[in-house]
From TrEMBL:
Organism whose genome encodes this protein: Ananas comosus
CDD domains given in the database record: OAT_like (cd00610)
Cofactor(s) recorded in Swiss-Prot or TrEMBL: pyridoxal 5'-phosphate
Transport recorded as keyword: no
One GO cellular component term: mitochondrion
Protein name as it appears in the record: alanine--glyoxylate transaminase
EC number: 2.6.1.44
GO molecular function: alanine-glyoxylate transaminase activity; pyridoxal phosphate binding
Family as reported in the entry's similarity comment: Belongs to the class-III pyridoxal-phosphate-dependent aminotransferase family.
Taxonomic lineage from the root: Eukaryota, Viridiplantae, Streptophyta, Embryophyta, Tracheophyta
A Pfam family of this chain: Aminotran_3
Length: 445
């Protein structure tokens, strides 16, 4: 009882999970080992069998509730099984699940119009895909077709997908196989915490100029980057970097691609898209994850002039922009607006970041607290001067947090960064509970 008294108390939540009659975790784990790809991984010693979700909470096979601070990798933006999103999906499923591009359907055009209304400048033409990888593959292909050049520049520590082209743009050995991934140059990462020029965005931007001068013909297809690196451990690009790089890329004839797969869709709080915080307007924007609240959907948005390169051939995608997925997308936009989830991400994100900063003063293992809105990172290091990654310690802390009812992600090149990317309905009470649990778990190290 004395130990239990020290365990932070989860905020109350009015939901009774459905009875679960499926197989237990051990049986699923056995089947996973036998029938699923060996490349799959999990964070916990005994992976959880998650059988239900409701808003910012997940439930395991025993009906135990967990606060979800990862949201299926920044994907469930409105909350798990949000009633309005479910209703939109089921209504559309009853009417029409799939047709094909040769027929018209208003759900698809309505969602394209709604997405375009969220975009600055002339970014008005939408191509739908099924994933973030496909969106980035298409974006890089468009840049290459439009410019007639092959060279693409991306950032070290970035993640852009798992197909050949996007794996080439990705710059972390953890996520690459040794296959041919040609035509991508990786620039110094403008990472204020670990980067070689600290927070000096202009210095990093000069590295891109040097790549153009010394690594290409002087002309490039484009530049692709996240505004806040997600898989890379919640790294916000140094201020001043993107405007300077966009200028150099455009001077070299290239297009600027913003990968908003994680950092977009209201998550940054201060803005709807991550790039907006840097005062730039990209030529192509890619998105996925949050756009469908977990339904497979991605998109590339660009200008009419750039999109016209695809008229040289028929180009389509069987499932991309399927009416069920786009009905979900329309519902997501309605919910974000009505429930003011971007504003919530701003207010709650600031509150949570502030509390985490205070936690940093208490625990020397916290080397850095960073991020924006509800895309926050906490980097653990065993030595603040040397920034030695606390790779095993983070696993212990995660395990303890799970025991106390909190699920959180981790990432970064060294796997030592907590990735806090909850559903955008996360509350201040959830933040207090989260920080108290992290505090308790760190104290046990
Ligand atoms: N781009 C970014 C920034 C991502 O974080 C991811 C996935 O984590 C992708 C692209 C690839 O998206 P998907 O896994 O939907 O193919």
């Amino acid at each position: 009882a004395a130990a239990a008294a020290n365990v932070p108390k989860m905020p109350p939540f009015d939901h009774r999970p459905l009875p679960y009659e499926g197989p237990a975790a051990a049986e699923i784990l056995r089947k996973r080992a036998e029938f699923l790809s060996p490349s799959l991984f999990h964070f916990y010693k005994n992976p959880l069998n998650i059988v239900e979700g409701k808003m910012q909470y997940l439930y395991d096979e025993n009906g135990r509730r967990y606060l979800d601070a990862f949201a299926g990798i920044a994907t469930v933006c409105c909350g798990h099984c949000h009633p309005e999103v479910i209703e939109a999906i089921t209504d559309q499923t009853k009417r029409l699940q799939h047709s094909t591009v040769v027929y018209l359907n208003h759900v698809i055009t309505d969602f394209a119009e709604a997405l375009a209304s969220k975009m600055p400048g002339n970014l008005k033409v939408v191509f739908f895909t099924n994933s973030g990888t496909e969106a980035n593959e298409l974006a890089m292909m468009i840049a290459r077709l439009y410019t007639g050049c092959h060279d693409v520049i991306s950032l070290r520590n970035s993640y852009h997908g798992n197909a050949a082209g996007t794996m080439g743009a990705t710059a972390q050995s953890n996520w690459k196989f040794n296959i041919i991934q040609s035509g991508v140059h990786h620039a110094q990462n403008p990472d204020p915490y670990r980067g070689i020029f600290g927070s000096d965005g202009e210095k990093y931007a000069r590295d891109v100029e040097e790549i153009i001068d010394f690594g290409t013909s002087g002309h490039v297809a484009g530049f692709i980057s996240e505004a806040i690196q997600g898989v890379g451990g919640i790294v916000e690009l140094a201020p001043g970097y993107l405007p300077a790089v966009y200028k150099s890329i455009r001077k070299a004839g290239g297009l600027c691609i913003a990968d908003e797969v994680q950092s977009g869709f209201a998550r940054p709080g201060s803005h709807f898209w991550g790039f907006e915080a840097h005062g730039v307007v990209p030529d192509i924007v890619t998105m996925a994850k949050g756009i469908g609240n977990g339904i497979p959907l991605g998109a590339v948005v660009t200008t009419r002039e750039i999109a016209n390169v695809l008229t040289r051939r028929s180009y389509f995608n069987t499932f991309g922009g399927n009416p069920v997925c786009t009905a979900a997308g329309l519902a997501v936009l309605r919910v974000l607006e009505r429930e003011k989830l971007q504003e919530n991400a701003f207010v709650v994100g600031n509150y949570l970041k502030n509390r985490l900063k205070h936690l940093q003063e208490k625990h020397s293992i916290i080397g850095d607290v960073r991020g924006r809105g509800l895309m926050l990172g906490v980097e653990l290091v065993t030595d603040r001067e040397l920034k030695t990654p606390a790779k095993t310690e983070i696993l212990h802390v995660m395990e303890q947090m799970k025991e106390m009812g909190v699920l959180v992600g981790k990432g970064g090149y060294y796997g030592n960064v907590f990735r806090i990317t909850p559903p955008l309905c996360f509350t201040k009470e959830d933040s207090d509970f989260f920080v108290d649990v992290m505090d308790t778990a760190l104290a046990k190290l």
